[in-house]
Amino acid sequence: MNTKLRYGCLGLLVVTALYTGAWAYFAPETWHENFPGFGLSWLPRLGPHNEHLAKDTGAMFLALAALTLIALRDVRDNRLVRITGAVWLVFNVLHFSYHVQHLDMYGTRDQVLNVLSLSALVLVSVLLLVPLGPVRRNGTR
């Protein structure tokens, strides 16, 4: 693992967390109707809008964003980055596991996008568990 890959992984996770978290927390009904955006709408098929659940989801994603931003600031801290990766991995594995069991309600395009996006987040989380390599002579990892 090197610091550039860590920055990329943490950056992707923080963007995901801020995008989902801010939307769900500050506009829960719109989030439920239109998530993930880009002309797609996946949540209404899972049940009716629940403002409490949406806002709790947003708060959880914003908390993950805070943790990830702290890790991004200290990207060379193996322990902090690995803890961040482990926290994201628990969430992403459980999230992926739920959704792959409920793909039947979606068309093929949405099934593929669900599996690809959620499995990518699992992979990114796993990559954060890999410690930085040794420091080279030029001071890079």
TrEMBL record:
<feature type="transmembrane region" description="Helical">
    <location>
        <begin position="112"/>
        <end position="132"/>
    </location>
</feature>
<keyword id="KW-0812">Transmembrane</keyword>
<keyword id="KW-1133">Transmembrane helix</keyword>
<feature type="transmembrane region" description="Helical">
    <location>
        <begin position="53"/>
        <end position="72"/>
    </location>
</feature>
<feature type="transmembrane region" description="Helical">
    <location>
        <begin position="79"/>
        <end position="100"/>
    </location>
</feature>
<protein>
    <submittedName>
        <fullName>Uncharacterized protein</fullName>
    </submittedName>
</protein>
<keyword id="KW-0472">Membrane</keyword>
